[in-house]
């Protein structure tokens, strides 16, 4: 095994899950840092309208990113199951198929998203004071979708063997590039929103290239052979079967967030700026929860491939327990210093006040997400991806649509709108718990 790989099939679980999940959580934080650097740079050096313009695009960017990340998660599960079952040839085929799929997805979504910008902005009813800057940022940012796709799929290949540190290193370097170029493009060239968007594109390309070079140099099952790239139909089917529902599940959150973003836009630029700042903070808590959810996916995937169902179940509960511990620690720090952290983005008192409201409604009840992500992740590790996607679609999207058009319509305040997050999480989690125990009792052997 490579020094960065993890033996998921033998020995203790808690320490290996921590070693797997923490670099993955930091990777998520680094990914958000790319956006946070844009928001912070514009909030401090340009103004809150420019900051609101970038924040307006978070939901649309998340919509496309969620689908690509979900598909890449399918690759993670398929490769991990093949490794666990010692099907080395199948694992090689899955790696090759994953790389080609990354290129196809990146180019397709880049073209599609450019056509969707105008109708999405019409739906969101973006205020005239920020619409031009928002469109400029988004159209430039979308050019990085092929690089983002390659990064996510290549990172999934590394994670399938337990290596979460290599993607972290690549993203850390890219984040440094992004921050440096933000300052150069805004302070030196006065490119404002276009400058931070261009910096983000370049940083995403850097992270993808680093992982590509590492795959070419890798040893063993995940090594990329450019002269032997093929699309294995069986592996492609499995990747899409598992990954597409996972991507749809992530997209549901983003779609419902588009609706919520439209409601936020109706409250004005202060609410938009506050949400942009608070989101860049709260998402770091979710990165921790999501990392342990992906740990459950990968550990369950390998052990399910090896036929060890008891270890699969233990890995699920250990991952959820550790997720709760780390999430609560980080959440406490964020809530305790909420005012101070928000002021780093913008010192407007109203922006800070609204940002604090959002943090309390989202970070405080994040424990609900621990169960939701952990159980969804475990089900995907078993190859059961459609069930959590359907539950999320019905519960999250349904509850949020109803809430916006009933409770928020009746009491159109920022606090009323934010309350929809914990309510939709709770309903989804209750149903997901029932589905998890139903499926685990009826598990069939891995293919």
What does this 3D model show about the protein?
This protein has 447 residues and is mainly α. The protein has one domain (14-440). It is 82% helix and 0% strand. It has helices at residues 14-45, 48-56, 58-84, 88-124, 128-141, 145-159, 165-188, 192-217, 233-265, 269-305, 309-336, 338-343, 349-362, 367-381, 386-405, 407-410, 414-418, 420-440. Helix 5 runs parallel beside helix 8 (192-217). The longest helix has 37 residues, at 88-124. The chain starts with 13 loop residues before the first helix and ends in a 7-residue tail after the last helix.
Which keywords apply here?
447 residues, mainly alpha, 18 helices, 82% helix, 0% strand, globular
- Extended strand count: 0
Class by alpha and beta content: mainly alpha
Radius of gyration: 21 Å
Q: Work out the strand percent.
A: under 5%
Please trace the helix and strand order, writing H or E for each element: HHHHHHHHHHHHHHHHHH
Number of helices: 18
Counted up, domains total: 1
Assembly of the depicted chains = single chain
Low-confidence residue ranges: none
Give the SSE layout.
Elements: H1 14-45, H2 48-56, H3 58-84, H4 88-124, H5 128-141, H6 145-159, H7 165-188, H8 192-217, H9 233-265, H10 269-305, H11 309-336, H12 338-343, H13 349-362, H14 367-381, H15 386-405, H16 407-410, H17 414-418, H18 420-440
Helix pairs in contact: 1-2, 1-7, 1-8, 1-10, 2-5, 2-10, 3-4, 3-6, 3-9, 3-10, 4-5, 4-6, 4-9, 5-8, 6-8, 7-8, 9-15, 10-11, 10-13, 10-14, 11-14, 14-18, 15-18
């Amino acid at each position: 095994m490579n020094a960065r790989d993890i033996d998921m099939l033998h020995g203790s679980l808690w320490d290996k899950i921590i070693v797997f999940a923490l670099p993955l959580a930091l990777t998520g934080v680094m990914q958000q840092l790319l956006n946070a650097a844009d928001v912070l740079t514009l909030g401090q050096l340009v103004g809150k309208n420019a900051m609101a313009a970038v924040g307006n695009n978070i939901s649309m960017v998340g919509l496309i990113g969620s689908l690509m990340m979900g598909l890449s998660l399918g690759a993670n599960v398929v490769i991990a199951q093949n490794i666990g079952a010692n099907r080395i040839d199948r694992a090689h085929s899955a790696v090759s198929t994953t790389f080609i799929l990354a290129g196809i997805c990146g180019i397709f979504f880049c073209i599609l998203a450019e056509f969707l910008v105008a109708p999405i902005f019409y739906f969101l009813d973006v205020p005239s004071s920020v619409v031009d800057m928002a469109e400029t940022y988004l159209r430039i940012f979308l050019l990085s979708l092929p690089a983002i796709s390659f990064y996510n799929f290549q990172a999934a290949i590394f994670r399938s063997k337990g290596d979460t540190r290599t993607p972290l290193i690549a993203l850390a370097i890219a984040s440094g590039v992004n921050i440096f170029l933000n300052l150069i493009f805004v302070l030196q060239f006065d490119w404002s929103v276009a400058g931070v968007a261009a910096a983000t594109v370049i940083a995403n390309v850097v992270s993808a290239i680093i992982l590509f070079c590492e795959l070419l140099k890798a040893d063993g099952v995940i090594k990329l052979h450019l002269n032997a790239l093929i699309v294995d139909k069986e592996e492609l089917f499995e990747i899409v079967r598992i990954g597409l529902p996972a991507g749809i599940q992530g997209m549901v959150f983003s779609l419902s967030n588009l609706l919520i973003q439209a409601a936020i836009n109706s409250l004005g630029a202060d609410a938009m700026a506050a949400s942009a700042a608070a989101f860049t903070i709260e998402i770091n808590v979710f990165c921790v929860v999501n990392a342990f959810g992906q740990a459950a996916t990968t550990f369950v995937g390998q052990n399910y491939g090896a036929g060890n169902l008891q270890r699969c179940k233990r890995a699920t509960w250990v991952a959820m327990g550790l997720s709760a511990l780390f999430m609560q620690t980080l959440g406490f720090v964020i809530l305790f210093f909420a005012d101070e952290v928000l002021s780093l983005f913008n010192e407007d008192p109203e922006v800070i006040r609204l940002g604090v409201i959002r943090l309390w409604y989202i970070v405080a009840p994040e424990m609900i997400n621990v169960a939701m992500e952990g159980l969804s992740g475990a089900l995907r590790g078993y190859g059961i991806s459609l069930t959590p996607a359907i539950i999320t679609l019905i519960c999250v999207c349904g509850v949020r649509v109803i809430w916006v058009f009933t409770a928020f319509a009746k009491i159109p305040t920022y606090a009323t709108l934010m309350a929809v997050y914990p309510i939709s999480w709770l309903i989804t989690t209750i149903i997901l718990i029932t589905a998890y125990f139903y499926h685990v009792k009826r598990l069939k052997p891995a293919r």
